[in-house]
Amino acid sequence: MARKERYLVGLDVGTSRVTAVVGERLDDGAIDVVGIGIAESRGVKRGVVVNVDAAVESIKKAVEEAELMAGVEIDQVHLALSGPHIKGFNSRGVIAVAGKNREITRDDVTRAIDAAKAVALPAGREILHVLPQDFVVDDQDGIGAPVGMTGARLEVNVHVVTGASSTTQNLISCVNRAGVNVADTVIEQLAASEAVLTQDEKDLGVALVDIGRSEEHTSELQSLAYLVCRLLL
Q1: Model pTM score
Q2: What is the pLDDT of residues 86-120, one digit of tens each?
């Protein structure tokens, strides 16, 4: 593995601060955090770029600080997306199983998911994630992994996450102007759940609440935080 390939970089451009995190892939598959860069966020409000030059400077500062701590040059990042432009809805895909002996393959699963995301979107919106929830083989529902099972009909229930194309592209452009390429994008809540929750917690239905920060709605956020704590007790 080349030296650069050993490192993964996450970039979160938030309302209050911009954070860059450098992780090094270890031989056992784990990731060790070796660098963190934090800068005051300017030019971004609720996930939307409102001042390009200010946003670019904030991103540069965070990336440079992370580079200095990690001792590596950052040339690409995985960019976190957030904001009120992120929307989600449920969808269902249905296909006929055409494989030999009606055995469901990974290709069948892919076709079912493709059918579920083949929906008409409003102008200016794009699909960010398609998250499978469960599968139905013939009349048997609640299936998590249908590959290898036998059936004539495969259905999948998915959650489709969409975002405003212009908002996403404006943020990517700011990152590019800061001298860094965007390898991939991911919504913040999904990235946080992957980092924080274990598989057992996900299977049990644990909810992760990302409240964030907004100086304009401090009292509302405090009330929400209190309500969440009461619900979890």
Answers
A1: 0.81
A2: 999 999 999 999 867 889 999 999 999 999 999 99
Q: What would you report as the CA-atom Rg of the chain, rounded to the nearest whole angstrom?
A: 21
What is the identity of the amino acid at 168? T
Strand partners, 8: 23
Q: What are the residues whose beta carbons fall under 8 Å from the beta carbon of 191, sequence distance 6 or more?
A: 10, 78, 80
**228, two tokens:** 């969440």
Could you give the dihedral angle defined by the CA atoms of residues 199, 205, 206 and 208, in that order, rounded to the nearest 10 degrees? 100
Percentage above 70 pLDDT, the chain: 88
d(CA 42, CA 40): 6
Dist CA 42 CA 72 (whole Å)? 25
User: Both ends of the chain: CA-CA distance in Å?
Assistant: 46
Would you state the pLDDT for residue 220? Answer: 52
- The helix (run of H) or strand (run of E) holding residue 195 is helix 188-196
